[in-house]
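User: Need the bound-state model for flavin-adenine dinucleotide:
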Amino acid sequence: MTDKMLKFVKLDQETPNKRKVSKRVDDFKEIYDQFINDKAKEQSSRCSQCGVPFCQIHCPLHNNIPDWLKLTAEGRLQEASELAHSTNNMPEICGRICPQDRLCEGNCVIEQSGHGTVTIGSVEKYITDLAWDKGWIKPIQLKKKQSESIGIIGSGPAGLACAEELRKIGYEITIYDRYDRPGGLLIYGIPNFKLEKFVVERRTNNLKESGIIFKQNIEVGRDISLEELKEKHDAILIATGVYKAREVDLPGKNLANIFPAMTFLTASNRKGLGDKVEEFENGVLNAENKNVVVIGGGDTAMDCVRTAVRQNAKSVKCLYRRDRENMPGSAREVLNAEEEGVEFIWQTNPKKFLGSEKISSMIVDKMKLGKPDSSGRKKPEIIPNSSFEIKTDMAIKALGFDPENLPKLFNNSKLSVSQWGTIKINFKTMETSINGIFAAGDIVRGASLVVWAIRDGRDAAKSIQKYLENKKVNKINAA
Ligand SMILES: Cc1cc2nc3c(=O)[nH]c(=O)nc-3n(C[C@H](O)[C@H](O)[C@H](O)COP(=O)(O)OP(=O)(O)OC[C@H]3O[C@@H](n4cnc5c(N)ncnc54)[C@H](O)[C@@H]3O)c2cc1C
Ligand code: SF4
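Assistant: Bound-state model below.
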């Protein structure tokens, strides 16, 4: 093993090249080049094959990282890809958009010892993209058909992962989604420069070819009721994500050209997918030549500022009420945004929006960090008489998302939700307060990460299988 591995002492860390800023802001393509074969092997060989692999422990999917790094270093790339798929339904997507700096790579022993982490995410992306190119990833061929069917509400990563796992066992699966395309936030939230849409469509097409039925443009609660779905299927999964944008309740909030982040990002993603988007065509949702101000400091805010740059905005500013160190967004994404010309105005908070019909400027207060609040984070406080004006032609609110009122939407008061509106589940079984109805992903956790949604989807699949098997046994015993 030592022959191929443990090269971190001699070999420096190398990541795939980032495309030149001047080139990448001209299009919406992903910003990192692909590893070439030899680089992926070489970089994998830096792994020290830890007895207790912290990378794996800190991965929500517990991906078997050291083993697929070793297979990659040995040139056994098909086996490496198969192993990556054994714990993850979409490794090429996680390889692209997981915050590895906070998960596997941030906990890599080599990183901790000052040698620079093994570039796990880039290798994961490389081996899975290669698997697609070589035709190693095939639709599911059923060995056995089960008689039961499962209805899944939502085709984001949680719904897709659950669907795939249950289809492998042979169940009939139907996914209902209110969007016209499957993928949830992978398709309409996350911009192309982080995740090109052919990558998502390749996955969802493969699931269609695996016999999973996708019913798009169907909103559960409006076009079909939860009760009807329950009658049609033997079990249900709710994986509807969180979509209610948090509001900024300030004077001038109803002026034109103040948008929630998802309105802005969805229009841009639809344009990229070739759709006709009226509000983009007529300039309303296009940042071109505008002074754009994005409010918020999370990853959604980073996606908005970088989208505005690519739409040729005149200027792009990001307001965040805490400082850089206390920002919730990934440090990697902040750096990318800064390289692309975004100006961060730390420790500022909007006070009012000004304009006649449309917004023309924003008054903001300067902030300082006070004592920690109940969450342990230092509370931002307004510095008196510190306000100043920022010219603003377009304001984008990226302050996070809350769940919609699902019991109301589904007209079912038996569906228990937490004080935040997320669905309450039994964490051992993922079952909601209604027998036979399970839930997974952001609608349970609140806004989270793709990798957690996949994990939840997989866990829910196991529980649904157990539930259906028990139901079968009980039926036989009762007969
Ligand atoms: C702008 C943005 C950028 C992000 N960037 C990253 C990132 O870089 N890395 C990362 O790990 N995470 C990122 N995330 C978070 C990540 O996208 C989510 O955590 C993840 O998609 C949640 O998956 P999900 O399956 O629970 O829900 P979603 O992906 O939200 O999918 C839910 C699906 O349910 C459908 N639906 C909702 N209600 C109904 C209904 N009543 N009837 C039928 N269908 C319904 C929706 O149309 C949608 O397709 C980002 C999120 C946003 C908003
Ligand atoms: S923690 Fe780093 S060195 Fe250790 S097994 Fe994981 S990738 Fe390899």
